[in-house]
Amino acid sequence: MDKDLVAIGGFVLLFVLMLLRVPIGISMGIVGVGGFALVNSFSSAMGLLAGSPYSTITDFNFSIIPMFILMGAFAAAAGMSTDLFRASQAWLGHLRGGLAMSTIVACGGFAAINGSSVATAATMTRVALPELRQAGYGPGLSTGVIAAGGTLGIMIPPSVIFVLYGIMTQTDIGKLFISGIVPGVLGVLMYAGTLQFLGWRSPGRMPRGARCSWPQRLAAIKDIWETLLLFLFVIGGMYAGWFTVTEAASMGALGALIIGLAQRRLTAKVIMRCLVESLRTTAAIFMIVIGAYLFGYFLAITQTTQKLIALLVGLPIGAYGVLGIILVMYFILGAIMDELAMILLTVPIVFPVMMELGFDPVWFGVIIVMTVTLGLICPPVGMNVFVINSIARDVSLGTIYRGVMPFIVSDIVRLTILCAFPVLSLFLPRSMG
Amino acid sequence: QDKTFDLKFSSWVPPAHALHVAVKEWGDSLSKATKGSVKVTLYPSQQLGKADDHYDMARDGIADVTYIALGYQAGRLPMGEAGNLPFLMTNADGGSMGLDAWYRKYSAKEMPDVMMCLAFVHDPGTLHAKKRITLPADIKGMKIRSAHGTMADYITAMGGTNVRVSAPEARQALESGVADAITFPWKSIILFGIDKVVNYHMDEAFYVASFAWLINKGKYAAMSAGQKKAIDSHCNNEWAGKVGRTWGAYEAAGRDEMRKLPGHTVYKLTPPQVAAWRKASDPVYTKWADTARKAGWDADQALKELRASLAKYKAEFK
Amino acid sequence: MERIVVLVERAAGASLAAVALLVFVAVVMRATLSINVPDNFDFSRYLQGIAICWGLAVATYRNAHILVDVVWEISGKTVRRAIDLFASSVSLAFMLAFAWMLVERFPMVQRAHQLTSDLKLPVWPFYAVAAAGIVAAAVVGLIRLIELVRGRSADPGIG
Ligand code: NA
Ligand code: NA
Prior knowledge:
The complex is a heterotrimer of chains A (about 425), B (about 325) and C (about 160).
Chain A: H1 3-19, H2 24-39, H3 42-57, H4 64-77, H5 80-92, H6 98-111, H7 117-134, H8 139-150, H9 152-155, H10 160-169, H11 173-179, H12 181-201, H13 214-222, H14 225-240, H15 245-262, H16 268-301, H17 304-314, H18 318-336, H19 339-356, H20 361-377, H21 383-391, H22 397-420, H23 423-431
Chain B: E1 5-10, H1 18-33, E2 38-43, H2 54-60, E3 65-69, H3 92-110, E4 115-121, E5 126-129, E6 143-145, H4 149-157, E7 161-162, H5 167-176, E8 181-184, H6 186-191, E9 200-202, E10 210-215, H7 217-221, H8 225-234, H9 237-260, E11 265-267, H10 271-280, H11 282-294, H12 299-312
Parallel strand pairs in B: 1-2, 1-3, 6-7, 6-8, 9-11
Antiparallel strand pairs in B: 3-10, 4-10, 5-8, 5-9
Chain C: H1 2-33, H2 40-62, H3 70-73, H4 77-112, H5 124-149
Helix pairs in contact in C: 1-2, 2-5, 4-5
């Protein structure tokens, strides 16, 4: 059968299955294995199903994902997210939109000790949303600010998306992590700027909180030492040569557990809850990873991957023209699709194109994370928005999407800045040689 | 009229790798020998599966031709792992032919569900470290990234610890100090930028990694007599040497390059020092022989034959 | 059923913790005493495989896979039921094929005689425990489909 036709048919079937509520990973797996059977042979497709998933889930490199998730779960249960929020509030609460800005800063802080944006959004919803609402912020704004702040979870290291990108493209994960720091901090500043802009347009939407005294501020700062310690231990230990990047995730998970235990904030029951929660997230993520690999092998054997690469590289519009097309494609895909699946399916095609055109692999990692960031909050399928909606049942999806809109604009501006000035992402990793 | 075949060759190295050149050469030559009735399409960079899965992939027909690192999966191919023993052979050229000639006898039994086309080795790699290492005792307390399981066993036997990182992660591990040394072929050190973080290189044929080229049995069976003949003439000792030579020359050039690189020390060992290293490798030979014996092989006899075969092709480490 | 699932979930969660602990101990021993913890690498990755396989079984029970709800949300009751039946059947078919292949492959894995790197222990027991998780996922999927056909709700109300 014609390979191009099978590939196109595969994509169509994939979207039909997903829209009919077949889990995303399973949809990709079915089309991948089925397509492989059509193009190659039935027995080889069954061999693929018997071999590939098991080899994926027993890949030690992938342990980074469950371990950083576990680290975030322990850190949240140990109250580090609450402490971060309190400290930010003590310093920023009295400003216009102070509590919303505190939320952004706390999101940035919590991002430094966990690897997932969805986890950051979920945690901060529990910590900050009730207080935001009580302080008089509208339902849209208060959820929108958390949805946007949550995306910092994957830009500020550690980050699951950087890990996946690093594994897929064989790019140094340590360098990728460091490259996310400046864009992440830029994100915090730009989100805060967005809030100030909104407050300037309609001051009523941005109440001020009470001013904290200096002793109160210093006391609050003292409470975030656990977060700092954990961050320094994980990131510092990696660069000091105590452990490898892959091992760092497990070290962080156990480090968070130890800190929580030392503070008597983690009981056996709470630890078990963290483990079970992390297991659920891990299983859900790995179903997609498994499916994406199966689908990817199918695309490779139809040579769709190779053809698309050749097509994109050959476009007579210059490197930045191709980059523009790719970014628009990501914007559309990110809006309608699960971001993890999007990355796993597209990076094998897009990365070689970018390298061929002379772009930097680490910089492109940052750009990929930015596209995921946008996808996580863009309607109609934004995972961060879904997660907040599942916790705050009284705020409708539409309201959250309206609330997050200004931040989408801010992210598009940030993406443009990062494209125009690669040095913002690259000077830190380059300075480490 | 022969049926036409489009053989999918899955390779885990990227197109820039020297082995890719050998793979391409093999495919083009095969296509020519069959007057185009057998085409070979390359899928480099693990497009069809992870490196460790390539044996199963050839068996199941996910790809029609692949190659595997013998010893990536401990215990699975004990005889194939013999080629990985330290201080065994001195060059890729004769080493590949010597190993290939010897391994054919065992591969049929060890790999019953694939057809082994040929076996080959890379140019001898060595220890690259942040300090000068001259005696096995120097290894004690060092953290080392090993090329394969046999090397890891060797390092452990000398009192070192193993750091398990992928080749791309190796540079970062050495730079940060998670690892102090690495066993690697010469040119690859430069290719991965590891020369920026290690500057002492022992100029001895410390070890090789051995590989086997595999073909799916069903595909071969489905071919015409003429096509099978063409495959057979590309799956012989001569081609084993060719593949070993192509990759080997590339890696070996790295040694000369390293000598000229400023700030790098490339040093020889004295005969007594070499003897000490070989003595220190006894436990690894014993461990290998035990595993091979458990799998039903006469390990001592086999090793003797391997050495003889390597000697025949002028690659035995003396 | 719920009690069994909770137990499985805890055991699988504990294997995740075991991975973290193994790596932690290995790193500390290496950094401080230059001691290899034998097979920490293989043990942790195979434990991870087991945790994920059983995690998939639990995710199937709790309907916790990541999926796209857009069409389902805007559909009426009958269409929703049709979608649920379709999605569950298709998912079940995949899980059955997956489980079947792992089981069928088992003798081959045993024969291949692959060992762990340091202690040279056979790896097939890890494979067997992981494969059992996928078999459990298929069984759970089947039970859920039967419940769905009988008219019970698609969600057990947890998760
Ligand atoms: Na993070
Ligand atoms: Na989206």
